[in-house]
C-alpha cells in the first residue's frame, strides 16, 4: 500500500521533473559552399566569391560584384530554396520579384524581408535603386538567431539567388547552408 510519505515523494519528483529545463541541443547554421556565375561579363563580374572558415561551426561569406554599366535602375531577383534529400529538391520557397519595388515595400514578401534584413547588415545593398556602385557582402556569418523565425528543420540546403537587370538574368549565386543539432 502507498503511504502518504511515498505519495509525497512521487509528487515531489514529478514537480522537479516539470521544473527542470529539458536538455537543449546546440543548434548551429553555417555556409558549406558557394558558387557564383556571371552570365554577362560586360555587365557585371565577380571579383571574389568565397567562404572563410573562422571555426568549425562558423564560416564567413565574402562577395564582391563589379558593375560595369552604371547606374542600374531595373533589378529582378529570383530566390529558390532547396533541401537535400537524394539530391537537392525544391523546398518552401521559389519567388521572383522586382527587387527595386521590393526594397520600397519589403513587407510584401515576408521571407524576403527576413533575408534582406539579415544581408543588409553585412552589405551595401541596403538602399533602393539605382545602384551606382559595386555590390559587396563582407563578413556575413549565419547564426541561429538569423534563422530562428524560419520553419527550417535540420539538414543541408541550397539558396539560389538569380539576379537580373533589364529583363535578362545576369548572375546566379548558389549558397549551400547546413543546419545541424548537436
TrEMBL record:
<dbReference type="InterPro" id="IPR010512">
    <property type="entry name" value="DUF1091"/>
</dbReference>
<dbReference type="Pfam" id="PF06477">
    <property type="entry name" value="DUF1091"/>
</dbReference>
<protein>
    <submittedName>
        <fullName>(Mediterranean fruit fly) hypothetical protein</fullName>
    </submittedName>
</protein>
Amino acid at each position: 500500500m502507498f503511504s502518504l510519505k511515498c505519495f509525497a515523494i512521487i509528487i515531489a519528483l514529478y514537480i522537479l521533473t516539470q521544473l527542470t529545463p529539458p536538455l537543449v541541443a546546440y543548434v548551429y547554421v553555417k555556409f558549406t559552399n558557394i558558387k557564383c556565375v556571371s552570365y554577362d561579363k560586360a555587365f557585371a563580374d565577380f571579383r571574389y566569391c568565397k567562404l572563410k572558415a573562422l571555426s568549425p561551426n562558423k564560416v564567413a561569406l565574402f562577395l564582391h560584384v563589379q558593375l560595369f554599366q552604371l547606374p542600374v535602375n531595373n533589378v529582378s531577383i529570383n530566390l529558390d530554396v532547396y533541401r537535400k534529400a537524394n539530391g537537392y529538391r525544391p523546398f518552401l520557397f521559389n519567388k521572383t520579384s522586382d527587387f527595386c519595388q521590393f526594397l520600397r515595400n519589403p513587407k510584401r514578401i515576408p521571407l524576403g524581408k527576413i533575408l534582406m534584413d539579415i544581408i543588409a547588415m553585412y552589405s551595401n545593398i541596403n538602399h533602393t535603386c539605382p545602384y551606382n556602385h559595386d555590390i559587396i557582402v563582407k563578413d556575413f556569418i549565419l547564426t541561429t538567431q538569423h534563422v530562428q523565425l524560419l520553419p527550417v528543420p535540420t539538414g543541408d540546403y541550397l539558396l539560389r539567388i538569380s539576379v537580373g537587370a533589364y529583363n535578362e538574368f545576369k548572375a546566379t549565386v548558389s549558397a549551400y547552408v547546413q543546419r545541424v543539432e548537436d
